[in-house]
Amino acid sequence: MNTWIASTLWGLGGLLAGVVLWYLATVWSSSPLMQQFGPAAAFHSLLEILGWSETWMHVGASLQRIFVGLAISLGVGVPAGLLLGLSNRAHAALTPLFQFLRMISPLSWMPIAVMAFGIGDAPIYFLLGVAGVWPVLLNTASGVRHLNPRWLMLGRSLAATKLETLLYLILPGIVGSVLTGSRLAIGVLWIVLVPCEMLGVSAGLGYLILDTRDRMAYSELMAVIVLIGLIGYLLDSALRALFAALGQR
């Protein structure tokens, strides 16, 4: 059997097993309320909300925040990663600080973000940037430090300037590392986004979670949770496809 077909069938089997466990968890519960959280009600509500223009407005708002957060992560993480990778002194001086900051949950900065930026998209962008910068930074630094030294020696032997070395040797050589960091960052950003969108904004999937809870539309709440997982999976798949298209492993 074709490897791709076999892998797909195994994946579908795993998803089916997850749905069965979900069904059993709601059926065996003694609470009638749990029936609204079951897969049948959730998938029925998912089909309904996918037909609402309001749902796509919330999806668009969340995706916009994700892409802005990723842009901030790349804009800060790639230059900082290059610095750590190219300079032993910078690596020695900054690595302990960065490792310390990385271990602080991005959500811990919520009160400070609201006080500094107010309510709206600005604090969300800040929190997403804080969450996503570390995978990009560390993978970029690792990519630079694991470049084949012969490439750099070749550049020096050809009298390449520092800018030419950066543009034509270093940056092409770390594309795979940056993509890996971006893929990890997307996963972190998507997880952090939902609680961030409970900071007083009026659009987004996190806001929609609160809205369905307040309306006690529990089957819709589960449908939104399924939709969040589905979109996150598609984002990761898109980055994996880009990774494969560039010939990376």
TrEMBL record:
**Keywords, A to Z?**
Cell membrane, Membrane, Transmembrane, Transmembrane helix, Transport
Q: Which Gene3D superfamilies match?
A: MetI-like
Please give one Pfam family short name: BPD_transp_1
- What is the top-level taxon of the source organism? Bacteria
Annotated ABC transmembrane type-1 domain ranges read 59-239
Q: Does the keyword Chloroplast apply?
A: no
Main location class? membrane
User: Which InterPro entries does the record cross-reference, listed alphabetically?
Assistant: MetI-like, MetI-like_sf
Q: How does it sit in the membrane?
A: Multi-pass membrane protein
Q: Which residues form a coiled coil?
A: none
Q: Which PROSITE patterns match?
A: ABC_TM1
Q: Where in the cell is it found?
A: Cell membrane
Q: Where are the transmembrane segments?
A: 7-25, 66-88, 100-119, 125-144, 165-182, 188-210, 222-246
What protein family is recorded? Belongs to the binding-protein-dependent transport system permease family.
Q: What is this protein called?
A: ABC transporter permease
